[in-house]
Amino acid sequence: MAKRSHSGGPSGSHRTLRIGEAIRRRLSEMLTRGEIHDPDLTAMSITVGEVRVSPDLRTATAYILPLGGQAAGTALEALRRNRGEIRHQIGKALGIKHTPELRFEFDDTFDRMDATRRMFSDERVQRDIHKSDDEEE
Question: What is the pLDDT of residues 51-61, one digit of tens each?
Answer without folding.
Answer: 999 999 999 99
